[in-house]
Amino acid sequence: MRDNELLCHLDIGSRFENVELVQVMLADALDDLGFDDESRHWIEVAVREAVANAIKHGNRQDPGKRVEVDLSLEGADLVIQVLDQGEGFEPEGVADPLDPVNLMRVNGRGIFFMQRFMDSIDYDRAPGGGTVVTMRKRVPNREST
Amino acid sequence: MKYSDRQIGDVTVLDIKGKITIGLGDIALRDAVMGALNLGATKLLINLKEVTTIDSSGVGELVSAYTTVTNRGGKLKLCNLPAKVSDILQITQLITVFEVYDGEAEALASF
Q1: Chain A hits for B24, Cβ within 8 Å
Q2: How near does any CA of chain A get to the CA of B99, in Å?
Q3: d(CA B27, CA B19)
């Protein structure tokens, strides 16, 4: 079994301004882990999308519902988990934003960005309800254990 | 996100600065475009030179602005895209939709 080292945990209210808090925490962690500026930017974009989705689509901006963000190391991977308290989510139901019929849609690109900028992304139902999104990114120069 | 507007001939130039992201930036971009349209602008140039980040909501607002302006018979163009904004428009294939110019003078001459 791989070691899982928790780097940081953040518990935020369902307000969009709190996405900025997550980004500050994430930027520090990515810096410490040795990600270059370019990688850092795109990881931040992906995580911002996950947190914004949790607030908007998961918790439907209910100020009484929380979003939790965990950053941890698992082997050579940075693992970022975003947990909401919503009704659940079916990623298969999201339309392809590159399909010509969807190109001019205002919404529907957040998951695409997450998939594009991270190595992997998985969705699960959380044990206590809600959705947990797990994103992974290989950490530069880090040996797998 | 902050913005200011300038009038160059019959073109309204919107200078956008900072993050076009969910919550504040996307709404500010909408306000900037709608404000210009409500004042009668029909030719809009969005100068993105000082934009640091754009997310899916920001991209959505750009699409919405383009559709709104076009549906009113106007024109909306973009100039001075930072590399990361250009990358996002490439990835989303919206680079094929927007008229994008490297510099402001070139963009102004195109209207």
Answers
A1: 16-17
A2: 14
A3: 11
Whether A145 has a pLDDT exceeding 80, the answer reads no
Phi–psi pair at A43, nearest 5 degrees: -65, -40
> What predicted TM-score, i.e. pTM, was given to this entire model?
0.93
Q: In this structure, which amino acid lies at residue A81? A: Q
Summarize the confidence of residues A91-116 as an average pLDDT. Answer: 93
Instruction: Write down the pLDDT at residue B77.
Output: 98
Interchain proximity B55–A16, CB inside 8 Å:
no
The answer to which of A44-48, A89-93, A109-113 has the lowest mean pLDDT is: A89-93
Distance of CA A98 to the CA centre of its chain: 21
Residues of chain A in Cβ contact (below 8 Å) with chain B: 15-17, 19, 41, 44-45, 48-49, 52, 56, 97-98, 103-110, 112-113, 116
Contacts (Cβ under 8 Å, ≥6 apart) of A28: none
